[in-house]
Amino acid sequence: KDRGNTSPSTLSGYESPQYGVEFSYKNSYFVTEREGGKEERRAHSTVLVEDTDFNRRLMRGEVEGTEGPVTITLDIFENPEQYDIETWVRAGVYSNFGLSPINPDGPGALDFGTVAGEEAAIYQWDGLYRADAVAVAKGDYIYLFSVTWSDAESPMRKDFKDILQTVRFIQ
After folding, report:
1. What is the pLDDT of residues 67-112, one digit of tens each?
2. Dihedral, CA of residue 90, residue 93, residue 99 and residue 102, to nearest 10
3. How many CA atoms, within 13 angstroms, populate the side-chain half-sphere of residue 13?
4. How far apart are CA 114 and CA 111, in angstroms?
5. Model confidence pTM above 0.85
């Protein structure tokens, strides 16, 4: 499979047949996963963290008194209402669109593009860290890809874009 411009020897693959998605990422990250949400709307998070001893200890809960690291995350939400992506992003509690820094009087700019041939909503939000977010509605799920950063020149932002180029929906 063609996974973009990065040498295959430096990539790992993530695949979730249950949630119908796969992508490739650099070996310089490790993956953690967790189930969440509520009984009426389940959610799943796949988090890519820079692979350092400190970050591994932090993610295991062995380091106290510090915030979590910046990450690349795929949050998958059930979408039983079959919301289109713009409706979900603008109204959804989980999209963080209301935290957008673009417009101080309300939500910020929402752009559109594609991920794996599917319409995607593209925006930023600002919380503990700034974030780039890309959301896709496909089948029974909303896929929210995001990268958090504190430095606009962070290499994670490029890695995030590279990951988006490798996404395939397999449902």
Report:
1. 889 999 999 999 999 999 999 998 877 898 888 765 544 446 889 9
2. -10
3. 14
4. 10
5. yes
118-126 and 130-138 beta bridge pairing? antiparallel
3-class state of residue 161 by DSSP? helix
Task: Give the residue from 65, 69, 67 showing the smallest Cα distance to 53.
Answer: 69
The region that residue 74 occupies, defined by phi over 0 for left and psi between -120 and 50 for alpha, beta otherwise, is beta
Q: How far apart are CA 39 and CA 50, in angstroms?
A: 31
**Cα 57 to Cα 63: distance, rounded to the nearest angstrom:** 6
Q: What angle do CA 141, 25, 27 make, to 5 degrees?
A: 145
Which residue shows structure tokens 């070996």? 27
Reply yes or no on whether the pLDDT at 130 is more than 60: yes
For 59-90, letters b (16+ CB in 10 Å) and e give beeeeeeeeebbbbbbbbbbbeeebebeebbe
CB 159 within 8 Å of CB 26: yes
Cβ–Cβ < 8 Å for 21, 170: yes
Beta bridge partners of 143: 76, 136
